Amino acid sequence: MLIGIGNDFAGDDAAGRLVARGLAGAGGFDVIESHGAAADLVTAFEGRGRVVVVDACLSGARPGTLHRFDVHRDQLPGFLTSVSSHGIGVAEGVALARALDLLPGVCEIIAIEGRSFAQGAGIDPAVARAVAGLIAALPGELA
Q1: Measured distance between the N- and C-terminal CA atoms of the chain, rounded to whole angstroms
Q2: What's the whole-model pTM score?
Q3: How many C-beta neighbours within 10 Å does residue 106 have?
Q4: Parent domain of 97
């Protein structure tokens, strides 16, 4: 399953949801959109063998940079644990799922570096290219 997280009205924060929309109906895997609430992530993880979560982030890297993390192998960085536009960070949702023993056997987070998360802002061109690249690449990875 792919979970695209974000806020459509906060600039580059829409990136994860745009990836999900671009992959809806691709076949071979389920796709959902989420605002990223920890409880929603835990519910979505339940009973899944493999989940890829796509969200926007702000780490200081160049806009459009992709950060990939295997939640079973990698320590999640601070920029995934901070308070965000969708409540708490994705890392807290992963931690909650781990504590409840509901974390999928394979769980990856792909964070797309954004530039602006201001209400009403548009998508940065570099972020749009990263979204398009994931839409092209992920079906082969998830099928």
Answers
A1: 10
A2: 0.93
A3: 13
A4: 2-15+32-138
